[in-house]
Amino acid sequence: MSTAVLGVPAYTATVGDYFALLKPRVMSLVVFTGLAGIVVAPGHAHPLVAFTALLCIALGAGASGALNMAYDSDIDGLMARTATRPIPLGRLSREEALAFGWWVGASSVAMMGLFVNALAAGLLAFTILFYVGVYTLWLKRRTPQNIVIGGLAGALPPAIGWTAVTGSLALAPLMLVAITFFWTPPHFWALALYRADDYARAGVPMLPVAKGKHSTRRQILAYSLLLLPLGLAPALIGLGGPLYAAVALALGIWLVADAVAIWRERDEVREPAARRMFGVSIIYLFALFAALIAERLIGIAPLHVAGWM
Q1: What is d(CA 179, CA 234) in angstroms, rounded to the nearest whole number?
Q2: Which residues share a beta bridge with 5?
Q3: pLDDT score for 245
């Protein structure tokens, strides 16, 4: 920002402020799942094409984060978790964040279309617009199912990575999308359980605020039980091999065990089980996709089942 207020010297935004707009921690997981889509896709992509696709996925995710911060800047300052973001702190204006976000988003889609392929660019554009238009501007402040429907945006990077290599879609990458899609609600509802006061203060109808913590605990358990067989499905269709199957089974059981602990939780002030599951859920998704990547890198070749790949 460039104007001084009441004699206080103006603050000049730094590269770090703009980088913070990109939500780098969220971006890192998105890039990793996109990388898995590239690695497990049949065929071969030139290293420069693969790098460009990953860069575009990263920039698209960052643009979505920046636009989300801009449009949610009025409520971010009300929540302890988000009060230190660049806009609430006055390091950037809402208008600057919007201009930056739309420019980065448009650039990422254009680059994907020019140097990778049109389908990957179209999926990337859809992801950005869905996250901003459907989740941020429409669902987030209107329904407790916001994160369920809005989670589609964050689930698509494996499919984008796959199409960057193949130029087409198949059922196999959509299964990876489904895993991430159904992982998103219990992951964020665990956070929402111990941040419920934050969301209530900001008027965001997250499930614990709108339906109560008891209902949220049941939903987390239900989604976690669904994730156990869904996480194993890639091994059943030949997308994942024995390493993946072992990781998916062990972590799926771990996730369900933590969901049961949340369901039985009685400390609604500190929510220790929910805090623990939030971290475990990150490990779960990272390890699943890491196992897929590791199998390809060390030469464990799963049996490709016709019709899925």
Answers
A1: 10
A2: 8
A3: 95
Residue 2 maps to a domain: no
Q: What local confidence, expressed as pLDDT, does residue 306 receive?
A: 44
For the chain, the distance separating the N- and C-terminal CA atoms, rounded to the nearest angstrom, is: 50
Average pLDDT of each block of 10 consecutive residues along the chain (309 residues)? 46 89 94 96 92 98 97 95 94 96 98 98 98 97 95 97 96 96 97 95 95 96 97 93 95 97 87 95 97 90 52
Question: pTM of this prediction?
Answer: 0.92
Query: For residue 43, what pLDDT is reported?
Result: 86
Rounded to the nearest angstrom, the gap between the alpha carbon of residue 181 and the centroid of all alpha carbons in its chain is 9
| 81, 218: one domain | no
Q: Among residues 27, 23, 296, 18, which one has the least CA distance to residue 157?
A: 27
Domain that holds residue 226: 170-309
The count of domains in the chain is 2
Instruction: Flag whether 241 is in a domain.
Output: yes
User: Domain containing 138 — which CATH number?
Assistant: 1.10.357.140
